[in-house]
Every structure is written in C-alpha cells, then in structure tokens.
Write a structure and sequence with these properties.
Number of helices: 4
Structural class: alpha+beta
Radius of gyration: 13 Å
Number of strands: 4
Oligomer: single chain
Largest sheet: 2 strands, antiparallel
Shape: globular
Low-confidence stretches: none
Order of helices and strands: HHEEEEHH
Strand order of the largest sheet: 1-4
C-alpha cells in the first residue's frame, strides 16, 4: 500500500529495475566492501531479489533496519547505489 511520496517513488523504481544477476559484480562488490553486507535497495518480489546492480554496502544493524523500512531506506541509499555503480563501471573500464 502506498502511503508516502517515498513509497510511490520506491514502487515505481522497483517495478523497473529488473532482476539482473552478476557473479562478477558480486565478487567485485565483496572485494571492494569486505566488511559490509550487500543490500538490494529495491528489495524483492516474493523472495526474488531485484537487480544485483542496485545494491549498497551496509552494516548488519543498518541492513536489518533497511529491510523493515524499505521505501524510506531506498531514498537514503540512492546516492550510494549510484556511487557503487559508478565504482564498478570505473573498475571495468580500468581492466581494459
């Protein structure tokens, strides 16, 4: 149920990000942020996580909070998500 502007934005983005999986991205992510957990910003549909590329590194306590407050957390994590994606793109470009 949509209650806030954040809920509306979250649901709109979640509907459009897809379900991309990447073992290479996950490996890079865990090497880049070894002490952090991988949080899928847009959660899941019936247990299937949305795109791996829409992930951010967070601590366990923050991860638990983010899972409970999905819309609110997603708005906070959007800049971090973009930074992670840019970091991965730069990594891929430097590998060439």
């Amino acid at each position: 149920m949509i209650k806030t502007v954040e809920d509306e934005i979250y649901n709109n983005l979640k509907t459009n990000v897809g379900f991309h999986r990447s073992k290479k991205f996950k490996k890079w992510f865990h090497n880049e942020y070894p002490e952090m957990e991988m949080h899928h910003v847009f959660g899941s549909y019936t247990g299937i996580k949305t795109s791996d590329y829409c992930s951010v590194p967070i601590g366990h306590k923050d991860h638990t909070y983010a899972e409970i407050h999905k819309s609110e957390s997603a708005m906070v994590f959007l800049p971090d998500m973009i930074n992670v994606m840019q970091g991965y793109i730069i990594y891929l470009e430097n590998k060439k």
